[in-house]
Write a structure and sequence with these properties.
Length: 424
């Protein structure tokens, strides 16, 4: 495929012919296209994802479409999201080696990325959590990924000129940012066109939340923070559907929402997805108790945050080479305490903000357009609504009271109390 032909969506039938000469692909899977087996597996909302298997091996070909796959041509979305995904993946690979699939090839005109196939037993993390699987390395892997990518993409680490160039590059990811800005921060709090919720069970609570002035003000403050605080390169969509796992390994995928924004956004979104998994367990209990899984999920949130803090602090002490909090002001004058004080301030700011982002992420997954399978796969609507109600109340509490909550143990104690609340 040459880069000059205009964009054309691939299909299972056309892929071997169109990519048969692509060396990045043939090197890995073999040249004999008559032996290639192609499957389209995209269970995502936006793009095409093909698994291509040949004599020698397999690879994934991910291609953007000029519209939102889930909705169709009526919702156009630019092909350039593939460009941002590619550039985010290469930066994540450099900043947190081994945490993303290896990238073999990128074709900007065809909006396609050829990458490593994460073959079974790799599955999507969300699926594993719904199945009640406890993964021992998960918190550690994700905590390290977040600390490394978020620290190393910021002015704490990068050369100012390079960070500004990246800021400019990713600033053009306007359309995907717009999705976050509307779907996450605004739509859940008014009668937006694409919203849906479990009805009629949640109708009363939905009305209550839309009338909740403190909550709406907080959601807009968080939106402002998201839009105005271009602190680091975010993954931008770091939820349990963007992570693939085996029993012992973890890889992040799908960073097409990558954008310069606040560190707390990725961390908050991710933790929210663990808390939602926690509240949804009651709905998946028919084949045995999920007590152990619930305890595991709370432990994962605490451990992820602890690993994040420890690694971020380690990088602060050893790799603080950017223009912020220069060593010349602190360590070089023998003032290690000053550097530690600044670090504490930064971490406590991230903590307060991540609670806000987490709270509204919970809301938008239950009230907005993009729901998640944790709740959606609970067939009994009343039971699902109970799980969702608890999650919504939890989300409201942590978003509105985020400045008064000081530790993750406090949050997890609250989550456990709400989960056990029998009147809901
Ligand atoms: P979208 O951007 O459309 O949401 P994703 O990147 O999330 O697409 O991919 C959709 C699905 O394709 C994933 O849920 C996963 O099942 C599969 N997938 C994507 N990338 C890979 C990969 N590198 N290896 C194996 N499966 C993958
Ligand atoms: Mg995606």
């Amino acid at each position: 495929m040459t880069g000059n032909k205009p964009f054309e969506a691939l299909s299972v039938e056309t892929l071997p012919k169109r990519l048969g000469e692509n060396e990045a692909l043939t090197e890995r899977i073999g040249k004999d296209i008559s032996r290639w087996k192609v499957r389209e597996v995209g269970d995502g909302n936006l793009n095409l994802v093909f698994i291509v298997e040949g004599d020698k091996g397999a690879a994934v070909v991910k291609q953007a479409l000029p519209y939102v796959r889930l909705v169709g041509d009526s919702w156009p979305l630019p092909l350039k999201r593939s460009f941002f995904e590619y550039h985010a993946l290469t930066r994540q690979q450099a900043r947190a080696p081994g945490s993303v699939p290896a990238i073999y090839h990128f074709d900007e005109t065809q909006a396609l990325i050829v990458m490593e196939y994460l073959s079974p037993p790799y599955i999507i993390l969300r699926r594993a959590l719904i199945d009640g699987r406890e993964l021992p390395n998960l918190a550690r892997d994700i905590g390290l990924f977040m600390a490394r990518t978020l620290f190393r993409g910021s002015d704490l680490s990068m050369v100012a000129r390079e960070r500004k160039a990246d800021l400019a590059l990713f600033a053009d990811n306007v359309e995907l940012c717009d999705i976050t800005e509307n779907l996450v921060f605004s739509d859940p709090y008014f009668d937006a066109r694409m919203n849906r919720h479990t009805s009629p069970q949640l109708d009363g609570l939905v009305a209550e939340l839309r009338a909740d002035r403190d909550l709406k003000v907080e959601a807009q403050r968080l939106k402002h923070l998201f839009a105005a605080n271009a602190e680091t390169l975010l993954h931008g969509d770091l939820h349990s559907g963007s992570i693939m796992v085996t029993d012992t390994e973890t890889r992040m995928i799908d960073p097409e929402f990558a954008f310069y924004g606040p560190i707390a956004f990725d961390v908050g979104m991710l933790l929210a997805n663990f808390w939602m998994a926690f509240f949804s367990q009651r709905g998946h209990e028919e084949n045995g108790s999920r007590d152990s899984m619930r305890a595991y999920l709370l432990k994962v949130t605490a451990e992820t945050w602890a690993v994040f803090r420890a690694e971020f602090s380690h990088l602060w002490r050893t790799e603080r080479t950017g223009m912020l909090y220069q060593r010349s002001l602190f360590e070089d004058q023998g003032d290690r305490l000053g550097a530690e004080q600044a670090l504490d301030h930064m971490l406590s700011g991230i903590w307060t903000d991540l609670l806000g982002f987490a709270g509204i992420e919970v809301h938008r997954r239950i009230l907005g357009l993009a729901h998640n399978a944790d709740f959606e796969t609970i067939a009994d609507q009343d039971l699902r609504a109970k799980c969702e109600t608890k999650a919504l109340r939890f989300g409201r509490h942590i978003a509105v009271n985020r400045r008064q909550i000081h530790s993750i143990d406090e949050v997890n104690t609250l989550a456990a109390l709400i989960e056990q609340e029998s009147r809901i």
